[in-house]
Amino acid sequence: MSLPLTAFERYMLTDDCPEYPMTFTVRMKFSGRFDEAAFRRAVRRTVARHPLFASRVEGSKRHPQWVPTDEDVYLDIADLDTVLRFPGSEQIDLRKENGLRIWVRTGANWTEMRVQFQHCTTDGIGSYRFLEDLLCAYDAEACGREDVKAWRPIQPAKLAHRGDFGLRWWQVLLRLPLEIWGIIAGMVTFFFLKPTPLKTPLTPSETPAERLVLLDYPTHTFSAAETQQIRQAGKREKATLNDLMVRDLFVAMDAWNQQHSDGKSGRLMRVVTPVSLRSPGDEDLPATNVVAMVFLDRHLGLYRNARILLKSINWEMWYLRSWRLGIAFVRCTGLVSLFPGGLEFLTRSNRCYATATMSNMGQGLIETQLPRTEGKIIAGDLVLEALESAPPIRAFTSIGLTFVTYAGRLAMIMNYDRHHFTAATAQRLLKQYIAAIKSAAGIAEPATADVDHVSVG
C-alpha cells in the first residue's frame, strides 16, 4: 500500500542534495563472535516490520508517495580491514534505492556496524527503534529461535496517521491561534535574523575518491564518573542535560569565533535542535519521522552570565515542548509546499540559517528487552560495547552534534562541513567544546582531553 509523504518528509526530501545529503549514521561496536547468516535473516525480518525502509519515493514533486519495493536494502559484510565505501555516493536517492544502508566489518572477536538512514524515512527515535528490533531479531536467529520474544509490539498500519501528532480535529481547531502565531513568529525569526556561522582558519580540499570512503567523525566519550558529574551539574541548576549542552555549545562557539575572526564576540548565534512530536499512543509506531525542528537564537553579547544563559534556554525549551510548538514548524513546511517552488525557497543554501545543530538521543536502546551485562546489551554471542550516531548538516551550518548515553557513559559525536573545516580544525573545535562542558560541570580534567577519530559514515 502506498502512502503520501507528510509535510515534514517532503521538506526533508527537498533539502537532500549530493553536497549535503540528508542522511545520518549510527555506529555500533560489538565484542564476541558474529553470525553472518543469522544477521542477514535478522535484517530481512526487521525491515519487514518497518515498511518505509522497504519503500521508495514515486510520483510528482507536489504529490510524492512511498511505494513498497521487493528489493533488499544495501548490505555490505566483510573483514575488519576492508575499507568502507559508499555505493556510488554518500547521498541516498529515494527514487532509486531504499533509505537504509548497512555495513558490517567483523573479525575473530570484534564487529563494527554502520547503519546509514535517509532522514526522510525516519527520525533518530525511529532509527533506534529499528536497531532495537534488529538486535532482537539477530538474538533469536543466532540462538535458533523462530519467535522473537524480545520484540515490542508494533503496528505498521499506524503509519497512515503519523502526521496527526495524536491530535483530534477539535484539538487542531483549539490550537489554530497558537500555531498561526508560531508560524508567523518562526518565519520572521528564521528569515530576518541572520545567525553568525563558525569561522575557520583553513580551507579543506577533498578528492572525488575520498568522498566515496565513509567519513571520519571526531567523537568523545565521557567516563561514567564524568557523566554523573555533568548530570549533577544540570540538577544543581534545575536544567536538563540537553539545556546544559546547548548552553555550553553557545559559549564554546562564541569563544571559537572570537579566536578565529576579528576578535569580536557576542554576535547572534542559532542552535537548531529536534523535538519529538510523538504522543503517548505512538509507542508502537514503526520507524518514521514524528519530529520537528526548533530554533534557539542567542545574542551572546546579552548573555555574559552563563547561569542566566542557561535559565533562558531552560525556560524556552520548556515553553516549546509544553505547547508542542514544533508542530507549527511542520505546519509551516506544509503551507510553504502549497506554493510552486516554496520548499525549494525554504531549503535554499545561499546563506547561514543556523550556526549548529544539536540532538540529544538520551539513553540509547534503553527499552530493549534483551539481557545485559554491566549495562551492555547481549544479542546472541555479541555484546554491544558502544553506541554512537552522527547527524546530517546543511550548507553554512558548520557542525552537527549528537549525544547518546549508553552503559552509563555519555558519548558526543560531531559531524562537520568538509567544505568548510579540515579534520584537524574540527577536532580542535570539539576539544574546545569538551573543555567548556567540563569547566561548567566542575570536572578537574585537562582541557586537552583526547578526541577519538571515529569512522561512522
Please explain how this structure is put together.
With 457 residues, the chain is of the alpha+beta class. The chain has a domain of 151 residues: Chloramphenicol Acetyltransferase (2-Layer Sandwich), CATH 3.30.559.10. The chain contains 11 helices and 17 strands. Strands 5-6-7-2-14-13-12 form a 7-stranded mixed sheet. Strand 15 and strand 16 form a beta hairpin. The longest helix has 24 residues. The chain is globular. The two termini are 32 Å apart.
In CATH, the architecture of one domain is: 2-Layer Sandwich
The structure class reads alpha+beta
* Overall helicity: 25-40%
Shape: globular
DSSP helix count?
11
Specify the CATH class of one domain. Alpha Beta
CATH topology of one domain: Chloramphenicol Acetyltransferase
> What's the CATH H-level superfamily name of one domain?
Chloramphenicol acetyltransferase-like domain
What would you report as the Rg, rounded to the nearest angstrom? 21 Å
Task: Estimate the mean pLDDT confidence.
Answer: 92
Order of helices and strands: EHEHEEEEEHHHEHHEEHHHEEEEEEHE
Number of strands: 17
Low-confidence stretches: 453-457
End-to-end separation:
32 Å
Q: What fraction strand?
A: 15-25%
Largest sheet: 7 strands, mixed
